[in-house]
Design goal:
Elements: H1 2-5, H2 10-19, H3 31-52, H4 57-65, H5 69-91, H6 102-121, H7 125-130, H8 135-155, H9 173-201, H10 209-218, H11 221-231, E1 235-238, E2 241-246, E3 249-252, H12 263-277, H13 279-284, H14 289-295, H15 304-309, H16 313-324, H17 343-351, H18 355-365, H19 371-383
Antiparallel strand pairs: 1-2, 2-3
């Protein structure tokens, strides 16, 4: 217990949670934003330590009681928008000549910090329920990350439109290094988003109907998960050796462990199990000819070795055997009035046409720090335990 309490005392944790706020996109990277990033970093570390000790209930209660899960989801989507709408414009400005890329790295790292925290706490049903309508925004966010993973697994590199820096700027060594870090961070974020989505599927019986419709029919998440299993972005062969991505790093897998299921494989299978075997999901999912043919690809993966590792997949095997004999059904034409996610559309609408003005403001006030400001940032990094330190991993 002493080690868990060493990060934050209960009163400190409550103060940090209570102070969480959503801010304008224009203020990304300013002093108030940095204080909130520091708070999220500390809460993230606390959540991981508490979960490992089975003592996370206090933090869960604080996030639920102060209704901060919607705030975290909005912050997550805000920094995602900044990364793709503001950052490329910022890099092309003539007066963007940073002495250090570290302030920008902190903003890029902010997305990873929030998704790490959400991954840790979304295991709990009450957290999922406390997201309320913003669960739709989180589903859409996770879907965007999973489609990125699917594209990466096909090409073995991120799609060109996901490059975070313009090509003509990557000749500077510091910016090249930032690009490498950003791409690896994007990969890790996407894998954590997969875990978040799996935890959401654990609660299919208590999710709003709009959330189920969004996963099953708007985004067809079951077929996307089948594609991830087919191409397996967290596995690849290099120089004749099988490598898998686990615990944040690529490592060579010894031959005797080639058939061993990774945690990421398990997340996909559990999400598929939740989405395909729930009676409510079966009622809502359009099992047309295309979806049926995609799902039947799973039969090739359901070996005895796999089922020994995840015995519940016997039920999946039975479901697929029954599906073989079932005629495809035409798409349902019910008139459905459903909620739609609003956070991303609202932020984009509020800032549309202002991307360059925001970038100019941030270059001047946030991302051109003086030597003294850089020293202050370094002291801040030490104070937070170095968890945001850039890594070439």
């Amino acid at each position: 217990m002493a080690e868990v309490a060493a990060v934050l005392l209960p009163g400190e944790a409550e103060a940090l949670v209570q102070a969480l706020r959503s801010g304008p996109l224009r203020n990304t990277g300013d002093h108030r934003w940095l204080r909130q990033h520091e708070a999220i970093e500390k809460l993230n570390m606390q959540a991981i330590l508490s979960a490992s000790a089975g003592q996370e209930q206090l933090l869960i209660e604080l996030l639920v009681n102060y209704a901060k899960i919607p705030t975290l989801i909005e912050e997550l989507i805000s920094v995602e928008i900044w990364k793709h709408k503001v950052f490329p414009v910022l890099c092309q400005l003539e007066d963007f000549k940073p002495k250090s890329t570290f302030p920008i790295y902190l903003v890029l790292h902010h997305e990873a910090s929030i998704v790490n925290l959400l991954e840790t706490v979304f295991f709990h049903k009450e957290i999922c329920e406390s997201a309320e309508d913003t669960i739709l925004d989180l589903i859409d966010y996770s879907y965007r990350k999973l489609t990125l993973l699917a594209a990466w697994s096909t090409n073995r590199e991120f799609p060109t439109h996901e490059k975070l820096l313009p090509e003509d700027l990557t000749n500077a060594s510091s910016m090249q290094e930032l690009q490498k870090q950003a791409e690896m961070m994007e990969f890790k974020i996407s894998l954590r988003a997969l875990s978040v989505l799996r935890f959401i599927t654990d609660q299919v019986d208590s999710l709003p109907l709009s959330a189920l419709t969004r996963m099953l029919n708007t985004h067809n998440v079951p077929c996307l998960l089948v594609e991830l299993l087919e191409h397996c972005p967290w596995c690849h062969r290099e120089a004749g050796k099988l490598k898998k991505f686990e615990n944040g790093v690529w490592h060579v897998v010894p031959p005797e462990d080639h058939v061993k299921m990774t945690k990421l494989d398990g997340q996909v299978w559990i999400a598929l199990y939740n989405l395909l075997l729930s009676p409510e999901c079966q009622r809502k999912y359009n099992l047309d000819g295309f979806n049926k043919s995609q799902l039947l690809k799973l039969r090739a993966f359901l070996t005895d070795v796999l089922i020994d590792q995840l015995p519940n997949l016997v039920e999946m095997q039975r479901f697929l055997s029954h599906l073989v004999m079932t005629e495809p059904v035409p798409p349902k034409k019910d008139l459905i009035l459903e909620q739609v996610p609003v956070i991303r559309d609202r932020i984009v609408r509020e800032n549309s046409g202002k991307w360059q003005a925001i970038a100019k403001h941030q270059v001047k006030h946030m991302f051109s720090p003086s030597e003294d400001e850089l020293k202050d940032l370094a002291c801040w990094l030490l104070a937070t335990g170095g968890s945001a330190q850039p890594s070439s991993q």
